[in-house]
Amino acid sequence: MKRKGTLNLTRIVLAVFFLFAVVLPLLGMFSQLTSPGASAVFGTEQFKAACMNSVTVSLTSTAISLVLALVMSWVLCRTNIRFKGAIAVIMTLPMLIPSLALGMGLVFLLGSNGVITNALGLDYSLYGFWGIVMGSVLYSFPSAFLLLYDVLKYEDASPYEAADVLGIPKLNQFFSITLPYLRKPLISAVFATFTLVVTDYGVPLMVGGKTTTLPVLMYQEVIGLLNYNTGVAIGFVLLIPAVIAFLVDVLNADKGKSSFISKAFAIKPNVGRDVLGYVAGIAASVAIVLPLGSFVLVSFVQKYPVDLTVTLANVGRALNLNVGDYWANSLFIAVAVAFIGTALAYFAAYITARVGGRFAKLLHLVCITTLAIPGIVLGLSYVLFFKGSFLYGTFAILVLVNLVHFFASPYLMAYNSLSKVNENLEAVGSTLGVGRLSILKDVLIPQTIDTIVEMIGYFFVNCMVTISAVAFLSTTLDMPLALLITDLDAQRLTECAAFVSMVILVTNIAFKIVFAGIKKALHRRATASVAQAA
What we know:
globular
């Protein structure tokens, strides 16, 4: 009876959490669509222009990102180039920094006084449509790359060997074997990339110039003018592509047959192919490293780009502007979300994957539905719903909004891991008088510890770089470090803004290194335990 009571209490806690953290804020926000001020927004020329800009920028960026992701995935999986592991890590580095910083890095390189602009004597403007596309590709490429690379590296070689025997040309093999195999991840990558770009305001805010996108318009109206009606109308529109992406991904989830390796690829020597692989790998790595490396250059010069004398004065100036306090804010929020979010996501996944029932099915639907809510929309809904409450203006609301914003992916990690464990475990345990809590503590958690570490890492890194979910909710006292980039850039403290970007990047890299060490230690411990048992 006690165990059943604990399960019921867990169900109630999760139901109340999602009711107040997701359902009610969104319902409250969209209930305001009926107001004359909100409905009038849809007919304005400003809205129509921003909507068109968002669609064209997102479609162009998505197409470029997918092509580049497919090329780099092929290079790392189908050539004999060296340093594949290092290149794969470099491809994901833009995920460790806010999109605001990526836009600023492009300005340092290709702006009116950019390093590359001055060095090559270029005469063009970075600001506008193509500037946003460049920054958006840099921002969205890592997600598309990971989706395709993680699938392509486990592809079975047998169909290709049969095609070679039959004399089928390599190009025909690509269209007849590779693309059908990549169908589902390609569809997921298309919608994930489009959604990332269409809901981001960081890159277009930095390099957009006169080209205004919907998220930037929403940011300017809500932050600058406190015009919540416009924010509600734009938030509704921004939710549409995210919901479509979510529905397509869910409907597409089980149609393709999952593949397992029956034969690994034996990559034959081919000098021409490998030379092209090196060229692509080096070009992609340079394109990613240069904007990130520009932060190091600008952080330690006297006055960019006038006086490039090396100095540490910017560090002291940044500390005097309370950068240390904002960094501590970010760390506190990221650590709190990482551990609270991991615990909630894991227990939700335990109920949906191991307990079952009607509530479990409903809970699973709610958990994955949070994927369809853009951070900027969630943030505005929290402003309207929680304003005036004891949560508003505190660290608690920043922890809550980040937890909900990033909940779905760690939940799915735990759900997939727990689903793979023998489904009869609890039934056998019940027969032997072993309770669910003991099985969870002694069997399930040890078997899924790698997943738990990955969940903590996902929450932490994303909380350090996010700007959209917290932009409307933070105050001068609890503001995360990533939001300081805009303020410093607006005050023409470019060197300090670059230093802040570098601090975030270094923090996330250090975190990744530490957690990689933790995972290795866990693997060694598990291996030693198995050897000892044998």
